[in-house]
Amino acid sequence: MNFRPFFRLANILTLSRLLLTLPFILFFRANDIELATVFFALAALTDYLDGKIARKQGVTQLGSFMDSIVDKILVGAALISFYLFQPEHLDNKIALIPIWMVLVIIGREVIITVFRSLCVVKQGEVISANRWGKYKTLTQVVVILISLVLLIFFEDSQNVIQRHGPIYFMMYLPMLLTVASGLEILYGNRKVFL
Questions:
Q1: Among 122, 127, 124, 128, which residue's Cα sits nearest to residue 194?
Q2: Stretch 86-90: mean pLDDT, rounded?
Q3: pTM of the entire predicted model
Q4: How distant, in Å, are the alpha carbons of 11, 128, 137, 183 from that of 141?
């Protein structure tokens, strides 16, 4: 078996993003939002860099599939963390975003991942992210980063840390793009169902 594709720089950066997800979760749960933000920002940077490097070296099906899965894990971890948020100064959790938003976004990701896997089995090819999928990932990452920065600077503010605060309203944009890009992938590749 040829392991060379695994050790391409772009794939190593993708795997490093997966490894950065764990400290992000741990620091966020420990209410060290500053360090959690640093790890999330580093993970986002590796996503940018691995895409840039992959385009120069040539995008591989393995790299494209791995990149997509790791992005979903990172974003899913952040969304679940936002749902389970428990500030130090409060005894109970405050869902920065409701569970239905988490389920819609993660549900779409699961459906599209299963669909892409079916495409690999039936057609032997990986469906690469389309432009809407790239917009979706970009808005997810940007909104999560802005939310983390808001949590750092307005840690004790009831205007930010509440069920229907700015984080909740900002999350509508990536959620809508997530659903729209998922529908576009399913419709654009409907021949797989035939």
A1: 122
A2: 68
A3: 0.86
A4: 19, 19, 6, 20
In sequence order, the 6+-apart residues with CB closer than 8 A to the CB of 163 are 94, 95, 96, 98
* pLDDT at position 5 over 60: no
Task: Using the predicted structure, report yes or no on whether residue 78 has a pLDDT greater than 80.
Answer: yes
Other CB atoms within a 10 A radius of the CB of residue 46 amount to 23
Per-range mean pLDDT, top range of 13-17, 84-88, 142-146, 181-185: 142-146
CB 94 within 8 A of CB 162: yes
- Residue of 72, 88, 76 lying closest to 29 (CA atoms): 88
Q: Tell me the HSE value of 71 on the side-chain side, using a 13 A CA sphere.
A: 27
What are 112's two structure tokens? 């599209």
